[in-house]
Design a protein that fits this description.
mainly beta; seven-stranded antiparallel β-sheet; about 10% helix; about 30% strand; globular
Length: about 140
């Protein structure tokens, strides 16, 4: 869940966290929230980025009267600032980067420290949440003759 983050080495910034190990390289940690209408199986699958050192996707389910609310956010760990195409279509958590990390941890809380918009999860809806990036497609090579 922390993907190697150590609290004593984190320096919060408005748009990202900087993480520097005493004997290692610096790392940028940036979180974004997913618009409610974009919370689909396809979008959740597309959040995984191969150019990052770690990707943490959080999907939150909150019981509501008559149903369940779903919200989502993603955290990217990278050796440099993220390219625009990585986070295009996502919403910045400006000034809430550290809160986003703590909200993604499996710790009990009366109220979540991070408030992001959500939507109703339909009773008949199947929402697939991938646990890792999809493997690259396999290429079949025919036998030589």
């Amino acid at each position: 869940m922390l993907a190697g983050l150590q609290p004593e080495h984190i320096r919060p910034r408005r748009r990202r966290l900087k993480h520097k190990q005493p004997e290692g390289d610096k790392e940028f940690v940036t979180s974004f929230w997913v618009s409610p209408s974009d919370i689909t199986s396809e979008t959740l699958d597309q959040l995984w980025d191969s150019d990052t050192t770690a990707t943490v996707v959080t999907v939150r389910l909150i019981p509501r009267r008559g149903g369940t609310e779903v919200s989502a956010w993603v955290r990217y760990h990278s050796s440099g600032r993220l390219r625009k195409e990585v986070w295009a279509g996502l919403n910045r958590l400006t000034g809430r980067q550290l809160v986003a990390v703590s909200a993604s941890l499996p710790a009990p809380a009366v109220r979540s420290p991070l408030v992001v918009p959500g939507r109703d999860l339909r009773e008949d809806e199947d929402l697939a949440v991938p646990l890792s990036p999809a493997p690259p497609p396999r290429v079949e090579v025919g036998a030589r003759t």
